[in-house]
Amino acid sequence: MESNTDSAPEEENTSTPNLEPRLDSVCREPASTLHEAACLHQDGVGYPAVSPEREAAVAAPAPGLEEDQAPQARRGLPPPVPPKVPSLDELSNDDFVPSELPAVVLSSQQEPEGVMSLSAIRTLVVQRRIHTALKHLTDLSNFEDKAEARLLRLRCLVAMRRYAEAAEECKQMGSEAASFEVRFFLAQLPWLLHADAYQSMLQLKALAQSWSSKGGESWEDRLELLQVLSHLSLAVGHGRMAAAELQRAVSEATDSAGRQLWSLLGRHHLSGGNLTAADAAFEKAKTYTGQDATVLLNSGFRAMAMGEFQAARDAFETAAADDTEGARLQEILAAENNLAVCKFYTKDLRGACERLKALVTKDPVRFLKPCLLQNLTSLYEFSQDAAGLRKALRDLAGAAQLEDLEPRLFQAPT
């Protein structure tokens, strides 16, 4: 279906869509580290939004928060983006999602009767067929490895945002309850259930302080934990708490993790309005080996925070081109999503729509995530056929059998 978008908003529709300039993955939102569930931090992590005072850059409070919950504006750099109701798709570090759908995808009518193996269920989770996977995990007595089956069921419940049921599932666990992903989920539970960011921040801080590299957790786990801690600490006005944990982490960083951790520290300072500290951390990140996309994202985030959208656009476009095998999915999502926002603010609405549409159409399993979907539907509001374009996205998700996208994501932004 062809979009009727122009390079500038239609005259009869002059309202600005709910496009928050996100400085996270993946526009990453706080979530659990349930690795095989559908993508953090981004994303989550609250990176600097464009200042409301800047021309044509009005950022509304994130969906799911009342206006009085948004952080107060401060002098200097713009305030961080308020956290939205958490969504698991944006903080997943599962970079092993297949780049193409399998040649044959079983429909619910074609699924074999009987007990499905845990290996097959894991494949369903990777394919984001969460409801189908959960159906096969109803009776845990069918599986010899009940601990793994229970963890898979937990991942499905969290991916479906059934957090209360997921918490009950944790109570039934044995030794698997000591795993990092379970402890990480439980630390976030006050926020997930009650939007109590402060209590979750304290629990995440305790988890970060108990970190041991000998516990079997990866640096990716630690990075994800610190991303969520950064996000929530900024949201409740205690950014120094997360900064201290980030400083401790970078002091222990290996060469492979140094660039990512220093970049996260710089983005945290940038969100808090400390440009000098942010620049120092970004320079330190350049001294470590790693993906060039990380450094390019840092440059884009800094330019976007300063309202320099053309410079940010150039940086994000170069970072997005690094879709190599070693590129982190989270960073590709961050680059593409923020690139679309920058194109919008540089009066290239058509280009923003077409690029995001091509991305999600090429690989819906990998790229049709809530963060991209939300911005794309917001951009479509400037089209004369917005309803038809949203329906095309809904049909695409249905054809790919994605079962972790909420229906509200395909509705007109409010």
TrEMBL record:
- Span-the-membrane segments of this chain are none
The family database entries (Gene3D superfamilies) matched by this protein are listed as: Tetratricopeptide repeat domain
InterPro entries, A to Z: TPR-like_helical_dom_sf
Cited SUPFAM superfamilies: TPR-like
Query: Region annotation Disordered: residue ranges?
Result: 1-29, 45-83
Q: Which PANTHER family match?
A: D-ALANYL-D-ALANINE CARBOXYPEPTIDASE, TRAFFICKING PROTEIN PARTICLE COMPLEX SUBUNIT 12
Please give the name of this protein: ABCC1 protein
Organism placement in taxonomy: Eukaryota, Sar, Alveolata, Dinophyceae, Suessiales
